[in-house]
Amino acid sequence: METVIQGSTLQTLRAGLRGTAHAPGEEGYDDASRAWNLAAHQQPALVVVAGGAADVMAAVRFAREGGLGVGVMATGHGVGAACDGGVLINTSNMRGVRVDPVSRTARVEAGALWTDLIHESQVHGLAGLLGSTSYVGIVGYTMGGGFGWLGRKYGFNAASVREADVVTADGELVRVSAEEHPDLFWGLGGGGGNFGIVTSLKFDLYPIGMLYGGNLIYPVEKAPEVLDAYVRWSAELPDEMTSGVAFLNVPPLPALPEPLRGKSVIAVRGCYCGESPGSGEELVRPLREELGEPIMDTFGMMPYAAMDSISMDPVDPMGARQHSEMLSDLSPEAIETLVEVAGAGSGSPLILLELRQLGGALARTADRLSTMGKGDSKFIMNGVGPAFTPEMAEGVLAYLARVTDATRPFQTGDTYVNFMELEGASAERVKAAYAPEDFERLVALKDRYDPQNILRFNRNIAPSKA
Ligand SMILES: Cc1cc2nc3c(=O)[nH]c(=O)nc-3n(C[C@H](O)[C@H](O)[C@H](O)COP(=O)(O)OP(=O)(O)OC[C@H]3O[C@@H](n4cnc5c(N)ncnc54)[C@H](O)[C@@H]3O)c2cc1C
């Protein structure tokens, strides 16, 4: 849908901005609306590159007055719905971070990435709960829950949030905490950005420096044995160890380790964050002994700042399509199915089919919002394939549908906000990310804070009168 904005209205908006505003066809428009995931295509009526909270307020008010919806993008790693015909607020210039070593908290602006924070927090021996890559936006990640290799010990970053500055759908700036707007505070902790645009977020940091983590990587032919050993091994792990197992079709890129380039492999991966990181080695030993010589064994002591090396996620923008399901358990039948769809000879076009272990501090509790549905899944499965052209995207999506069908008997039906597919997850998929009683409460919150669904270009929770 094309929406044309009158030149005079735009001039008035621009005059009041610290940042910039770009209409279709104008210089800067394409760059400012392009997402990290190149398979996302959005054509906003206007993109505002915000200089600060005041610009966010101005952009929301501008959209409201023009009867337009609002989308927000920090990096474009998680475009929930294309901001077509709306006002897209690009926060990528708002990257300020500040660490308070006394209260052990960080305060970050809307566009800050984990990589911006790591250096500032580690100088004090503190760490935030980042995910598999430090190039994701902290606020967007946290709005969907946010968990990574520290997850089973410390939980979701959403549960570590203490306070936020939020621009509501009315264009007002409010401070949100357990004391101020407590209803909004609860909803921010996983409500996917449905109730306001966060301009700054304050959250807890944890005393972490060294960790024990890495991958044990085997040829994909060994997948049945590796999965069987992984299931027995992971069942006994303490919460200090977060683990996963991944089928990888490694691209033949020079940036990747030579023994892996162009190979199909299976990797057991994990990170131990207990008080003595050396104990991690003790935990990994039985698996090493049982499975024998790997292609690569990267497990070892590492500084927190090197955690990206565990998942080896791509840093540069790429086109990708993805689908995730949550599994009740990895039974022998589930293992057999996974080997069929991703193992040797499967013809899988996916670069990654990963299973991450849940439990520990990631388990659902009654006092806070969970972004993983009812909370009875033991593993989350996430498949990702390259989608640089529409044809590639079609092939990957068809394959992901096949994986979904094959694994249906082992699925719990829950979803996870942050792993929801690119652009246009169905209302049912969004609903399945929350426990039924939480979802009811979220809709009531949407009715209260955004009854016109101005903030709709996201994993949308629609108001009841939509
Ligand atoms: C390679 C890769 C690895 C990932 N690894 C993990 C992982 O380990 N764990 C995990 O939990 N997730 C992971 N994710 C998912 C990621 O956390 C989500 O895609 C997240 O939404 C990205 O946030 P962003 O701001 O970078 O992306 P954007 O696309 O810029 O934003 C995504 C959404 O976040 C919301 N949002 C962003 N900024 C604001 C704001 N200021 N106020 C309100 N809402 C806002 C909006 O709804 C927006 O549509 C990964 C994604 C990728 C592509």
Rg result: 22 Å
Q: Can you tell me the CATH topology of the largest domain?
A: Vanillyl-alcohol Oxidase, Chain A, domain 3
Judging from the principal axes of the Cα atoms, what is the shape?
Answer: globular
The major sheet is characterized as: 8 strands, antiparallel
Q: Tell me, what is the CATH class of the largest domain?
A: Alpha Beta
Mean pLDDT: 96
Question: What ligand species are in this complex?
Answer: flavin-adenine dinucleotide
Uncertain spans, ≥5 residues at pLDDT below 50? none
- Strand-residue proportion: 15-25%
How far apart, in Å, are the first and last alpha carbons?
19 Å
For the record, the CATH architecture of the largest domain stands as 3-Layer(aba) Sandwich
Structural class designation: alpha+beta
What is the count of β-strands? 20
Q: Helical proportion?
A: 25-40%
**Count of domains:** 3
Specify the number of helices: 14
Question: Helix and strand layout, with pairings?
Answer:
Elements lengths: L6 H9 L4 E3 L6 H5 L12 E4 L3 H13 L4 E4 L13 E4 L6 E4 L4 E5 L4 H9 L3 E2 L10 H6 L7 H4 L6 E7 L5 E5 L4 H7 L8 E8 L1 E2 L2 E10 L3 H13 L5 E9 L14 E9 L6 H13 L4 E2 L2 E4 L4 H4 L8 E8 L4 H11 L9 E6 L21 E8 L3 H18 L19 H5 L4 H14 L5 E3 L9
Parallel strand pairs: 2-4, 3-4, 3-20
Antiparallel strand pairs: 1-2, 5-6, 6-10, 7-11, 8-9, 8-10, 12-14, 12-15, 12-16, 13-14, 13-18, 17-19, 18-19
The structure holds flavin-adenine dinucleotide (FAD).
Flavin-adenine dinucleotide binds next to strand 3, helix 5 and strand 10.
